[in-house]
Specification:
Distance between the termini: 55 Å
Number of helices: 18
Strand order of the largest sheet: 1-2
Mean pLDDT: 83
Oligomer: single chain
Structural class: mainly alpha
Order of helices and strands: HHHHHHHHHHEEHHHHHHHH
Helix content: over 70%
Largest sheet: 2 strands, antiparallel
Length: 432
């Protein structure tokens, strides 16, 4: 542990602030009381360790997935709010050192609580005649991998959130992510008979539990890489233009591994991530002015929503070209979806930035409300008149009865219109 603290000073900082003797003592006493009570209840009910094992395992998951994710979600954000983030940026720590330090350090008390519950899980396992050693190993592997994914996702969210996001809202969001992960995990922890054959992924048949562990680790690394790159941007480390397209491309690649997957609709998940990145990343007026007047040195100052929109557009083109050239549903109209989604995303991002240039106190909230209305109201009106074939006018809906040009044109025109409006606003705001 001392070696980790020397290699990653952030862990040492969190250790000093989070692991005071009084707090550690209270946590230890609490888990002993909980475990003792569970053991007594288990003995009284004649459960032979079953009650103790299952309940202690759920508590272990609760500490890691919920409390750990809440702590990770607030790691960078709370420092922004408390004005200590700027001090950290001046330290010689690299983005990797800082990201690992926060991943292991911010939830350190959650790790401690989970470790304290582990002996009670082991006790329940030893007393139980229904849980095999293989079950125990799978349960712990599922729990650790799910915790890695949830905590990494919390760190990714925290690294993208700006000062406009409150610590309480970030904590609530982290808790919801943790609770959702815990609910999904419980289905696998206590499902002894997962019906049906194994899963096929890129032609390989997987045991369902092994596949969940693999997926959690893969997405945990994906989320951690995104958090590291975002922190690196804050530290003014040199960026790589391929990172964000590759980051979103991973979501496409993962989905295409399943049999009968549609490569074109695999672009839905990257669209959500691009939107998430744009909403959470707000640049100041000074940042925009430096970017607009930076000349050849402004590449690293490009606003996040522009980078996200351009990356998604490039990814959409790659998906369409690959799908058409590889014969993947080459004759169907589904290839239009990624291109339509790219246009609608640019429209939404441009409108989001337009709202940020207004005097609104909560421009993101206002933008999200109006964007939702732009999708929902016209769709509802068209549906009421039975004009489902015209949905493409307001949502990225592939209409097989329309030609490709006509299907994509409305989204492209809306993107151009918002670009013109935003350009006019930028000129008024900055006199450029």
């Amino acid at each position: 542990m001392s070696g980790l603290r020397e290699a990653f000073p952030e862990i040492a900082r969190y250790s000093m602030s989070e692991t005071r003797l009084s707090r550690l003592t209270i946590a230890a006493v609490t888990t002993v009381v909980l475990g003792g009570a569970l053991l007594t209840m288990d003995s009284a009910a004649g459960e032979s360790g079953k009650l103790l094992y299952s309940t202690a395992l759920v508590l272990e998951g609760l500490f890691l997935l919920v409390y750990g994710t809440v702590r990770a979600t607030g790691s960078v954000l709370n420092e922004r709010v408390e004005r200590t983030w700027e001090i950290q940026r001046l330290t010689p720590l690299s983005s990797f050192e800082m990201a690992v330090g926060k991943l292991l350090g911010a939830p350190i008390l959650a790790y401690y609580l989970a470790i304290l519950m582990l002996p009670w899980v082991v006790t329940g396992f030893l007393l139980s005649d229904q849980t095999t050693l293989l079950d125990f190993c799978w349960h712990q592997a599922l729990l650790v991998s799910a915790a890695f994914f949830a905590i990494s996702l919390g760190l990714l969210t925290s690294s993208h959130a700006g000062e406009a996001t409150s610590g309480s809202s970030a904590g609530t969001g982290g808790g919801l992510v943790g609770f959702f992960a815990l609910q999904v995990l419980l289905q696998f922890l206590f499902d002894r008979h997962p019906g049906g054959p194994g899963l096929r992924f890129f032609g390989v048949e997987w045991d369902p539990k092994a596949f969940v562990v693999f997926s959690c680790v893969a997405f945990g690394l994906w989320a951690f890489a995104g958090a590291k790159w975002r922190i690196g941007k804050e530290l003014l480390e040199r960026g790589r233009p391929w990172r964000l397209p590759a980051f979103m491309g991973f979501l496409v690649l993962y989905q295409t591994g399943f049999p009968n997957s549609n490569i074109y609709y695999s672009a839905v998940a990257p669209a959500f991530f691009a939107f998430f990145s744009a909403v959470l990343s707000r640049e100041s007026r000074d940042h925009w002015k430096r970017w607009l007047t930076g000349g050849d040195n402004r590449g690293g100052l490009t606003p996040a929503w522009i980078t996200a929109a351009a990356s998604y557009a490039g990814l959409a083109v790659i998906v369409v070209v690959f799908g058409k050239t590889s014969g993947w549903n080459a004759e169907g109209p589904e290839w239009r979806y990624p291109l339509m989604q790219a246009c609608f995303l640019f429209r939404d991002f441009a409108f989001l930035q337009f709202c940020r240039f207004t005097a609104s106190r909560r421009p993101e909230v206002m933008a999200l409300i109006f964007i939702a209305l732009m999708y929902a109201l016209p769709t509802a009106v068209l549906a009421s008149f039975g004009m489902k074939g015209a949905f493409y006018l307001c949502v990225p809906y592939v209409d097989a009865g329309s030609g490709a040009f006509l299907n994509i044109l409305p989204a492209a025109l809306q993107a151009v219109a918002m670009a013109v409006l935003l350009r006019s606003t930028v000129r008024k705001q900055f006199g450029i």
